[in-house]
Design brief:
Layout: H1 2-35, H2 44-62, E1 65-70, E2 78-82, H3 89-96, E3 100-104, H4 113-117, E4 123-125, H5 130-145, E5 149-152, H6 170-178, E6 182-190, H7 202-211, E7 215-221, H8 233-249
Parallel strand pairs: 1-7, 2-5, 2-6, 3-4, 3-5
Antiparallel strand pairs: 6-7
Helix pairs in contact: 1-2, 1-7, 2-3, 5-6, 6-8
Length: 252
């Protein structure tokens, strides 16, 4: 009987994943159509962030991902500094706060997500490419000056969510130069297996999520870390990293 139940559950997961893949494709088409009507300049940044927010909310809802939000939602301009656990992270944060995420260039090649990301204002960077890094710094500075919220994952890679890796200081320098607040953000998933680490590839991980009945994530926003213009970027990065660790522990 146990074997039959396991097989039935597996079959249900396959059906559920198929339905969700089809629904995601349809949703992506609608989001793309809406994004195509957004002007490229002026109010376009804010409008793209709103389209991204609505698209992320729809995607999470379709996949049974329930988000519990704690803390005051930040208003722009602000830099969000979050721990990085899964490819789901930017969807979870962007569903709560209209923002422009900074993402690795590899995402452009992902099914469905990659095709939309650039049209929705995602700022891409190529790891190890100095010219790309400088371009990202300029784009983030412009976005912050226009009053936007920018989402960054300063660990630079994913972890299992139990600790926070050292933060890279790059975008903290932009925030310090502009005197923009940095908001610590902590994400914790249930089940913990939703962490996406090591050599795991996107599609198998996505299909496992799509086959699940329900998943949940706790999203915590801390109080903004403010600094005077020109403050030391490395010190600011470390102060915010400690705040993210405290949020994960429930100490803040």
């Amino acid at each position: 009987m146990a074997a039959v139940a396991t097989a039935a559950a597996g079959g249900l997961g396959v059906v559920r994943a198929g339905v969700r893949v089809a629904a995601t494709s349809a949703t992506a088409a609608m989001v793309a159509a809406r994004a195509g009507r957004v002007p490229p300049y002026g109010a376009g940044l804010r409008q793209r962030a709103l389209v991204l927010r609505d698209g992320c909310r729809a995607a999470l809802r379709l996949h049974g991902v329930v988000v519990e939000v704690d803390g005051a939602l930040p208003q722009g301009p602000a830099l969000l500094a979050a721990n990085h656990v899964s490819w789901l992270d930017p969807l979870v944060v962007a569903a709560a706060v209209p923002c422009l995420p900074v993402s690795k260039l590899d995402v452009r090649g992902w099914p469905v997500i990659g095709a939309l990301a650039g049209r929705l204002g995602v700022i891409f960077h190529a790891r190890g490419d100095a010219a790309s890094g400088q371009r990202v710094l300029r784009e983030v500075e412009v976005a912050l000056q226009k009053g936007m919220v920018v989402l960054n994952f300063p660990e630079g890679t994913t972890s299992d969510g139990r600790a926070v890796l050292p933060f890279r200081k790059g975008l903290f320098g932009v925030a310090a130069r502009l005197g923009v607040p940095v908001v610590p953000v902590a994400l914790r998933y249930q089940p913990a297996g939703l962490a996406w680490t090591g050599d795991a590839t996107f599609l198998p991980h996505y299909l496992r999520l799509a086959a699940r009945g329900r998943s949940s994530v706790r999203l915590r926003f801390g109080a903004p870390e403010t600094s005077a213009a020109g403050s030391d970027a490395a010190a600011l990065a470390e102060a915010v990293r400690r705040r993210v660790q405290a949020l994960l522990r429930g100490d803040a």
